[in-house]
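Field reference: "sequence" (input) and "structure" (output). Example, Conjugal transfer protein:
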Amino acid sequence: MFPITIAGFKVVSSSMPDTNASGRLICLCPKPGIPVPIPGIPVGFWEPVRLVDVTKSPMCMVSLGGLSFGSATQKGMKDEAEGNAFYHIHWYVYSMIYWLEILLDFICLEMAAVDIAYLTEFDPLWSDDAKSAILNSETLLFQNVAAYQACIADCMSCSAGLLASDYAFWCAECQGMLYPFIETAAAHNGGVGTSVLMVSKFMAKMHRQLMLWGYYGYKGLCAKYPMPIIKKSQYRLQMTYSIPETKSCKSIGQTEAIWQAGKEFPVNGEDFGYLIWRKRDCCLL
């Protein structure tokens, strides 16, 4: 959850990088049943909101203890002969702060039960390059040296302890390119790094489909808002499988070279699970 800011001032610090606070001392937001906006205090924090599986086995629910609803023989390996990686994504609603009732007076907390929200096995855009162009027709604009060089520079800054750049929205920093929003990675350099790239690609795709929205900054104080281009600084990742990461989260695009050791191994260690943390700026009424 940390760092936590109140009225633009940091009250609980953290070693993790954070977005800029809204800078407002008060906020005004509508409240059901009251005809005029109610004044409140802006509060910023990080909340765990989603679980995500990254798996080569269709319908293998990694975050549900490996429960499988499909054939284990239908593995996603069609491109591995060419050096590419191929993964399915499973997306779960996981509103932990709301369930535990840690924060009671925020109007913008997500009130949702645990749920399987998305399975890419049923998404034709995830497995077909041509169809995916419906969502990301601008992909060709970033197939050049200048675009890749921007990603390299962003990788260095992100790995030095800064948040990923939202201006270079086509980059996944140290993991490569976010585009196109499909199930394959151009080069499979390791399961951990590739799984992080797949999660980043999927979240960018969900933003483009307006299934993920913006929640931080002054626009997010009262409610979520449309964000068709992902702002990577809004998210953190924490590995839950194969080897849980219990001490820290990772920024999108941060190099995996310093933390991937021992987290990928044959058979049971080839699928991955992550907890998604999201930055929230809310109005405490």
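The longest helix spans residues 191-208.
The mean pLDDT is 85.
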